[in-house]
Amino acid sequence: MNRSTHVAFTIGFTTAMLWGLRANVSSLLVVVPIAVTATLIPDMDLRKAHRLLLHNISAAAMFTILVYLAASKNLPNWLAELAALGFLLGYVSHLLLDMFTIRGVALLYPLSRRFYRLARLRSNDPRANTVLKMASALLTAYSVAAMSGIIRVGSLP
């Protein structure tokens, strides 16, 4: 998928996950910008072994641990945890979205070079990118509304 689709999807995914974790709306201010930054990192391997070196769980875990360690040196523990959570959600959302492409991702690298995919979309397909951005925007709006109490979810009259 293209960069703007990754960013939109990451915002929707992260917001929905925070809502699911029952986080407060103010946590979005910390977590979402970090998640958006993290979602761009896997594509730093565009020139060498794309979707191999950085498109895997090992890289996500390693970078998340480094973010937490760096943040915990200068920030309160709760903020370091939010930073690590944001980074992990952003990175994982990138991997998840790329799993919907024809190539997929080498999720278990370096243990395995097998590529995993959930669908066969073309990453440069304008229709797929547009639909994913629209769905991401709806997910973001719904999650923020639910987190802020504008809508009540799962309650019976």
Task: Sum up the structure in keywords.
flat, 157 residues, single chain, mainly alpha
Would you give an account of this structure?
- By secondary structure, this protein is mostly helical.
- It has helices spanning 3-20, 28-40, 57-74, 77-98, 126-147.
- The relative contact order is 0.20.
- The model has no long low-confidence stretch (mean pLDDT 93).
The biggest beta sheet is recorded as: none
Strand content: under 5%
Which series of helices and strands comes N to C? HHHHH
Mean pLDDT: 93
Low-pLDDT regions: none
Terminal Cα span:
41 Å
- Round the Cα radius of gyration to an integer and report it: 16 Å
Shape: flat
Number of H- or I-type helical stretches: 5
Helix-residue proportion: 55-70%
The tally of strands reads 0
Kindly name the structural category. mainly alpha
